[in-house]
Amino acid sequence: MPKEYRTIQEVAGPLMLVQGVEDVAYDELGEIELANGETRRCKVLEINGSDALVQLYESSTGINLSNSKVRFLGRSMELGVSGDMLGRVFDGVGRPIDDGPEILPEERRDINGLAMNPAARSYPQEFIQTGISAIDGLNTLVRGQKLPIFSASGLPHAQLAAQIARQAKVRGKDEQFAVVFAAMGITFEESNFFVESFKETGAIDRTVMFVNLANDPAVERIATPRMALTAAEFLAFEKGMHVLVILTDITNYADALREVSAARKEVPGRRGYPGYMYTDLATLYERAGRQVGKDGSITMIPILTMPEDDKTHPIPDLTGYITEGQVILSRDLYRRGVTPPIDVLPSLSRLKDKGIGEGKTRADHANTMNQLFAAYSRGKDAKELMVILGEAALSDIDLIYAKFADAFEKEYVSQGYDTNRDIEETLEIGWKLLSILPRSELKRIDDKFLDMYYGKQ
């Protein structure tokens, strides 16, 4: 029987100080029982001698210092995991919110998980098809990779996230594929959009959703991605599934981290974020990957909105250090009606070379990818020159490149949120666009591929 303490000394916002505690550990879960019998959850943030500083998962309204009791449960926060979680929607702390029955857990797991031993990691090298040309063709996603999407306020990252969750699949083999979707600090409308989007297409049947709304407590927001990753680890490494984890929005998560840090009166770091934010984000991102001897894998797509469109802001900056590349959304392309507005030139997938080629996508993939990058870059330069000097100042070949850049954005990048292109279709569109250019300009493509594909569309 856990001890009960009636020694609450102070409540300040989401924090509460309990004195005279014994054998209580950092991160331990607790229960506060109010005078009317209502219970609320909390966790230990700090231990100083016999004083415990705890953080509430719910509101502190109605807590009477003299009448309320605190019990510490002797364990950290856990999630009951089961194969029955697929097709279900949970709140930020793992309680079902889809009017379905409670989950009967196969086991209970600490949500903080364990870091994967680097020696036990298997190198990511299998292609995941998202059905989006700008990702599959140019910034290929590989199984076990962490590939964030850098968005900005007002850009359609929610639609892109829902599209990837609906369309992503492992090609060829008949392997089990699941999506774990965690939404942090989103509005009710956004939450509803995701749930309805998955239900319409039947994708909900292979999806586990964790939803933390904007009006939920900040401490719950910190638990939500850990809940999602705990479910993903169970499905991947116990059930042998290939799991895609989508976390949106990491900016809301980092803001919750800053709020908790400020409440604890910690010394702030850059832009007021805690100095340990890099370590904290790494404890999330590094739970993705493949393990030697295990069939399953966890591939992660964290989505974050860059405050003031600033790539040097601490959140995208630190995320870029930990992950293997980034997909960047462009406000300029969005204004011009390109959907999804993926800016392919600053985007990067550091593991793409491992996931493409013969037996994975197609033998000509690497050549066409390099040529498309080079041609689009030169086309954009030609268009900028045209703005400054006028069309008459451009050479004939520069005009062709400018035409190519427009066609590339319109036909290759812009495909809408309902079009699902397989990799062959993406490569065919690439060859069709490259056929705009004279064959003599295609210096990055092997002659044997030019003979097979150039001008054949």
UniProtKB/TrEMBL annotation:
Source organism, top-level taxon: Bacteria
Alphabetical UniProt keywords: ATP synthesis, Hydrogen ion transport, Ion transport, Transport
Pfam hit, one: ATP-synt_VA_C
CDD domains linked: ATP-synt_V_A-type_beta_C (cd18112), ATP-synt_V_A-type_beta_N (cd18118), V_A-ATPase_B (cd01135)
Domain named ATPase F1/V1/A1 complex alpha/beta subunit nucleotide-binding: residues: 131-349
Span of domain ATP synthase A/B type C-terminal: 354-454
Domain ATPase F1/V1/A1 complex alpha/beta subunit N-terminal as annotated: residue spans: 8-74
UniProt record similarity statement: Belongs to the ATPase alpha/beta chains family.
Role description: Produces ATP from ADP in the presence of a proton gradient across the membrane. The V-type beta chain is a regulatory subunit.
HAMAP family: ATP_synth_B_arch
Name under which the protein is recorded: V-type ATP synthase beta chain
Organism: Jingyaoa shaoxingensis
